[in-house]
Amino acid sequence: MAVLTEEQSMLRDAARTWTQDKSPVSAFRKVRDSGSDIGYDPAIFAEMAEMGWTGVIIPEEFGGSDFGYLSLGLVLEETGKTLTASPLLSSALAGASAIILGGGDAQKAEWLPKIASGEVVATLAVDEGAHHAPEKIALKAVKSGDGWTLTGEKSFVLEGLAAGLFVVAARTSGQPGDTDGISLFLVPGDAKGLTRHQRKLADSRGCAALTFTDVTVGAGALLGEADKGWSLLEKTLDRARAGLAAEMLGAATQAFETTLDYLKTRVQFGQLIGSFQALQHRAAKMFTELELTRSAVEAALAAIDNDTPDVPELASLAKARMGDTLHLISNEMVQMHGGIGMTDAHDAGLYLKRARACEAAFGSQSYHRDRYARINGY
User: Is the pTM of this model over 0.85?
Assistant: First the structure.
């Protein structure tokens, strides 16, 4: 485990207490059963913003605390344990990262304080197909006057119905598949010609497809340089991947602990099922995978904070390992709980569904194993 500073330990403990008191799994069930379009409770997100969580990576001059990615990862891990639904990852991590890394002074001054206060939800609009493939961007951005006109579609935009700001990856030159010719734009949620379509995911969280019909933005909407947005996009995505891995780590940890408690209390054939050696072996396998994966996730977050050159490979390693580990533990949770694990009355199914949605977001295990191999010249 990473060695935490006193402030980080306090942040983690505060997040743990708050999520268990204010946002247990039963609160997520309520949101799911309410049929909410946006997939989260705005009052809960407002409390997160009040506690400063939405400003953890944002510089102090823009209303944040500049406390780093490992610190935000600790908060995301606690929200993952109770399946807390919120735009914390999409907005306070992914959206904010794009602007911190690529924004000019005016862009930062306009948007970062609003993200830090929770007033605006920002999110990335990257993928256009069923699978994560950032280089296959086809949505076109064409010069018009001193601004740009965007035309095309985006699929599976997390928090797409709630967002007031989209960081849109568009093609300003080249063909889908080229990494050259990609540019990033800041598009307000109320832009004329932008329509949103709700998408239902297995985990009942907020998601949308977007259609851009001649959406015009000014020159000030371009994030970074035209045609040279690929490296900014990759850096932003790596931060999102590491942050999502931290949230998945929380879900996996809780799924394991719930299962372990069950093994210690469930009696079958006059014995505790935790006394059966086959189940002990399976529990030991989950525990070792979890510890190994924790190291990978914390290494990725620490590398981002220290701005080391191995961020891309560590982010892919964390996301791939975390996907495998959460897949295993969420399956075992259902299996080991037996019949009750198959019912909606039990939480096991909620963790399983969240696991599958997280595995697909920002690149699946196979995507990141392939990327890790490419980065390391295999």
Answer: yes
